[in-house]
Amino acid sequence: ISMPNQGRKLIQKQGKGRKGEHPSNTRHSNQIFPIASLPMEGDVSVGKSALVHRFIHGEFLEHYNTTIGTAFQTKRVSPRDTGAASEILLEIWDTAGQERFHSVIPMYYRRAQAAVIVYDRHVHSTFEKAKMWMGVLRDQSNIAPNMVAVVGNKVDIDSGMVSEEEGREYAETEGAMFFETSALTGQNVDPLFFKIAQRLAMREIRTPLSEPIRLMDSTRRDLQRCCEGLI
Fold first, then answer.
1. Keywords in UniProt for this one (predicted)?
2. Phi then psi for 156, rounded to 5 degrees?
């Protein structure tokens, strides 16, 4: 099992973007910017993969295979999207929601810098699972409460079982951010990730990073294949 990046780092990107890659992920030579690990937590079928795909690729896919282990994607967020002074690269870890993976998932956020906890507004049990993941984060990570986003997904469907007020009140109690999103329509998806990136970038300004590291694309591809194949 490969581990996510340990602590905050800088990454120096080399070469040109791969064919078909989202413009925000295009590589630029000799650019150095902060990199931050961001795990996505939540129950099965709450829409974690759909949210990540919408943010990375700007589209909605109707059918997804259930995530096995952890899937890994990245996106570079520019200052124009966040209002921050620096760019930041988000490493998004889309974790499996199945019970059998719960024991290994915490290793992916033990040293993460932020986290997203997703529930389905129309299935109240997923909201209770979100509270469980919040407790795990609190006990097993160094993530500050204000770097966690509680997300009620599928807002495009009317009359959810978890009201906006209930979700927001819980997030405020935990000191976390709160968003209601729709991967289908794109509502609040970019603002969710941009807000996290903004807070990360501002925190990096206050806390200087270590020396830059050079991480080749082939290394990241190998890491992604490993995580996607975790069983």
1. Nucleotide-binding
2. -70, -20
> Residues 41-73: pLDDT tens digits?
999 889 999 999 999 999 998 766 555 456 788
SS3 181: coil
Locate the domains of the chain by residue range. 9-228
**What 8-state DSSP symbol labels residue 18?**
P
Burial class of residue 229, CB neighbours in 10 A (0-12, 13-18, 19+) = exposed
Q: Which pair of tokens denotes residue 71?
A: 């899937």
Percent above pLDDT 70 for the chain = 64
Please report the pLDDT score of residue 201 as a whole number: 84
CA distance 93 to 69: 10
**What class has domain 9-228?**
alpha beta
Beta strand pairing status for 115-120 and 31-42? parallel
Tell me which residue of 219, 231, 6 sits closest to 104, measured CA to CA.
Answer: 231
pLDDT 10s digits, 154-188: 999 987 899 999 999 999 999 999 999 999 999 99
For tokens 């099992």, the residue is 1
**Side chain identity, residue 142:** N
Q: Is the pTM above the cut of 0.70?
A: yes
Strand partners, 164: none
